[in-house]
Design goal:
The protein has helices at 13-23, 35-40, 66-86, 120-134, 159-168, 187-199, 218-229, 240-253, 259-266, 274-280, 288-299; strands at 3-8, 28-33, 47-52, 91-95, 108-109, 142-148, 150-152, 181-182, 184-186, 206-210, 216-217, 270-271. By secondary structure, it is an alpha/beta fold. It has a domain at 3-154 and 184-211 and 271-285: NAD(P)-binding Rossmann-like Domain (Rossmann fold, 3-Layer(aba) Sandwich), CATH 3.40.50. It starts with a strand and ends with a helix.
């Protein structure tokens, strides 16, 4: 008999990819719920797992009010989890974020770190995590709090697309003097992990970081994008101290490049995914470079 999966947030980037992924796999029947249904209706008796994707995404333009994050990322999650505890469903999968743990990471970020988010987005996700962790879990049920890093894939128009457009215009990458590495997560790998958590019976409830198996430097990204465009990568190694000085002037003069933006462009953010790999016991289907290349290929069709 097919496992019935109730999915929230199915119209978002991750939701659309997950629905397509699960529809192409045998053994699942999907129930896609609207926000109003989440608030008003109970979880049907035939639902095996609840996959909670719905939430307020991180607003990079900083126009979202703190209350909006709390209402959507915490209160909505709380309400759905309460219904899960009272239902006959066996598994609850909550998509949180590494930003619930830390906005910046000096070392490799693992699940053992003491969470210290500084943004309203990260704080609201952490509130939801804590609520789930604090509730008594009935026998026969399990929960999985997944903390993905930067998710990418076909149809995603985030920072990778901006870098792609930059390189496509033949502009040299000006921050090549900074040697940084970041973890990424292919949406295909995310969907794979979610499917395995539904199918496998012995994965222990808890918090799990999600990332591809290796981190990639921005300079490597530039090279991968250039290769897909069929052009030679162009790097401009401006002295790092000079760039930092210009960024500090940007703080004072309100220029496009300031210290905060420079930090986001050049920081290290490496995520340790060993806990989920050990629990899952299966290799991720897509390597970091393969996933990035697939995403870059999809940009060619975006007008």
């Amino acid at each position: 008999m097919d496992k019935v999966l109730q999915i929230t947030g199915s119209t978002g980037f991750v939701g659309q990819n997950l629905v397509c992924y699960l529809q192409s796999a045998p053994g699942f029947k999907l129930s896609l719920t609207t926000r109003q249904q989440l608030i008003e209706a109970e979880i049907p008796k035939d639902v095996y797992a609840v996959i909670h994707l719905a939430g307020k995404a991180h607003d990079l333009k900083a126009t979202t009010q703190s209350r909006e994050y709390v209402d959507t990322n915490f209160k909505l999650t709380k309400g759905i989890y309460d219904k899960f505890l009272q239902s006959e469903a066996k598994k609850f999968i909550f998509i949180s974020s590494v930003k619930a743990a830390a906005d910046y990471s000096k070392g490799t970020l693992s699940e053992d770190c003491i969470p210290n988010p500084t943004t309203s987005y990260g704080q609201s996700k952490l509130m939801a995590e804590k609520y789930i962790l604090d509730q008594q879990l009935p026998v026969g049920k399990s929960y999985y709090i997944l903390r993905p890093c930067m998710i990418h894939g076909a149809g995603n128009k985030g920072n990778l697309n901006l870098l792609y457009q930059f390189i496509k215009r033949g502009i040299p990458y000006p921050l090549a003097a900074f040697e940084n590495k970041r973890s990424f997560l292919s949406v295909e790998n995310l969907c794979f992990v979610i499917r395995e958590l539904i199918l496998q019976e012995n994965v222990v409830s808890g918090v799990y970081n999600l990332s591809d198996d290796s981190a990639i430097s921005t300079n490597e990204l530039v090279s991968l994008i250039s290769k897909e465009l069929g052009i030679k990568p162009r790097f401009w190694r401006v002295n790092a101290r000079l760039v930092k000085l210009l960024a500090s002037l940007g703080d004072v003069l309100k220029l496009p490049l300031n210290t905060e933006k420079l930090t986001k462009l050049t920081e290290n953010y490496i995520v340790d995914n060993r806990k989920i790999r050990n629990a899952n016991r299966k290799e991720l289907p897509v390597s970091a470079a393969e996933g990035i290349t697939k995403t870059i290929e999809s940009f060619k069709t975006i007008k």
